[in-house]
Specification:
Elements: H1 9-23, H2 27-31, E1 45-47, E2 56-57, E3 73-75, H3 76-91, E4 98-104, H4 109-126, H5 132-142, E5 156-163, E6 168-169, H6 193-208, E7 212-214, E8 217-222, H7 226-240, H8 259-267, E9 282-287, H9 293-302, E10 315-317, E11 323-328, H10 330-338, E12 344-348, H11 349-354, E13 360-364, E14 370-377, E15 394-397, H12 400-409, E16 416-419, E17 435-440, H13 444-448, E18 451-460, E19 462-466, H14 468-472, H15 474-495, E20 496-504, H16 508-516, H17 519-523, H18 528-532, H19 537-544, E21 547-550, E22 558-566, H20 567-579, E23 583-589
Parallel strand pairs: 2-4, 9-11, 9-12, 15-16, 15-17
Antiparallel strand pairs: 1-3, 4-5, 5-6, 5-8, 7-8, 10-11, 12-19, 13-19, 14-17, 14-18, 20-22, 20-23, 21-22
Helix pairs in contact: 3-6, 4-5
The protein binds phosphoribosyl ATP and zinc ion.
Amino acid sequence: MSSSEKISVEQYKETQLQRLESGFVSCADLLTVNDYDDETDKEGFYVIPSAGDGVIGRYRSLKDMENDTPNIIVRKSVYDKLCNADRILKRKSGYKNCQIIVTYGYRSPEIQAKLYFDILAEKKENYPSLSDEELREIVHREIAFPDVAGHPTGGAVDVIIFDYKKGKFLDFGTEICQFDSKNIYYASDDITPEAKKNRRILRSVMCEQGFAPYDGEWWHFCYGDKEWAFYSNRRELRKKGDRKDIKTEKKVLYRQKEFSEISEIIYNDKFKTHVTDNRLRIRLAVQKDGRLTEKTLSILKRSGIEVMQDKRGFLAKTDDFPLEVLFVRDDDISKLVDAGVADIGIVGENVYRENASNSIIKKYLGFGKCFLALAIPNKPDSDIKVLQDLNGKRIATSYRRLTEEFLKEKDIKDVTIIDIAGSVEVAPLIDYADAIVDIVSTGGSLRQNNLKVLASILNSQSILIANRKSERDIEKKNIIDQLIQRISSYLTAKQFKRVNMIVPKASLLQVVEIINKREKIENMDDSVEDNIIDVEHNTIIDMKLPVITPIYGHEEEWCSLQTVMKLSEIWEKMEELKRLNVANILFFDIEGIIN
Ligand code: PRT
Ligand code: ZN
């Protein structure tokens, strides 16, 4: 073809692309950036939620980090900026039902290097004549040169827009990481107007939050890494038109981090097991740090659900069950469940009643037992002897509603209720009130303050409550019921022991009779704790039927007997059994009982 010939459309496009490429931030550019800010580098990391209609994180084309962290992780500020960008996006016309999906965030330097060198080897084979430097730039386009890469800082993200009403990704002209097409260049001309518009909108909402775009990949944005620093400084310089003084002003905010370092920043050593997926999860609200916390987590654990409590955050997920746990103040639990912010909650019945919650009580859990008491000073000359004496008196409490209800029921009309939040017991001592209404468990606190119980207003223990709407949602209800089934199974099992004993054949009938003498024991139940638990009677009764097996070689004199008993029952019957020469009584925990 002669030089006078008009260039073809293809050739024209090629020159356009070359011009574009010359403007990309190159690896060589990034190697010049070496000014760090060590303060900002201390910033922690954040696990992007994997579901919802805001910013969510889901791997799409690149899944090389998925084994280490099934969630996408970024620096905390990056997440905040993404959330802002998402909010702004929703306000743009035509993007109301759209959300930003982060398809890639943090990558470990180790994996970055591996990917880089894999591709380098491949390119070396294909382009043997290129110099090392040229090769480095070519590979860098696809996978950043390890020393300067942004993803290992937690500052770079790959993002796309998803329309959750229509259930589809918007058209961007190419797939993310479709490296075989030059149309991945931001300014590529070869895409539909629709795709161009989507790219423009994505770029504008991201850049408005301070992200730097990368012209070589429409989906890649960064904040705080070398590329961001270089890009921001170059833009500043261009604006100033001052090309002599090339001193960079923006420092690199984030250094690269090893995966082990990050896991400490986010979830201590438990991070790796902090797995989640995209299943529907129900959200459980529990007390963050108080009397109920330990028992709550322990019941979940014994029900096979381990919750990793992130010390800093207030939301945790579980591996083994589609559950998300929200750690909050106990007074907020029933309110959050009522509002549907949490689907279920574990809370004291006292709080549930005081807040007049309209959620459903699904299960009594048998711990956190206490009662709401009306208490008065314990002195002989007290002018309060019976409830009616409270007329004209002051009651200090943080349970106004329950106190008022109680007084109304007892027809005591003339009482001043003083709301106080803590140290209620002290109120009578300092003559701030004549009586109090407060939670009592051992009564030690009352005694200490020389108070005594005049009436009990409410017996309380922790309960599992569920939001009414969640209960009507079939999928959620299904998960809630599974959770309750597991908890019930544990609570039931917890009361019983599997018992093995060696019985002389001669006394077998008497032993069986003793073991079958159940009713009495079932009813005169020992610890109050156990009373609450709604034992699945049929299962237990079946299991209690003794199983008798012969003992090899001693079939004539001995047999082995297996049954299920309460621990208290074992102690109770022990002497009687020993008298009948029963030997080797062994008992074991039961992990669960399923009907
Ligand atoms: O910070 P946050 O708001 O989450 O916690 P909180 O301080 O409001 O609640 P927290 O942790 O004290 O109690 C949480 C729940 O535990 C309560 O809502 C009850 O359902 C239950 N519970 C069980 C108790 C007690 N026992 C109890 N003894 N809550 C409080 N007490 C108080 C009691 O009022 C007294 O001041 O503990 C003190 C000691 O009680 P005695 O009777 O054992 O001396
Ligand atoms: Zn990227």
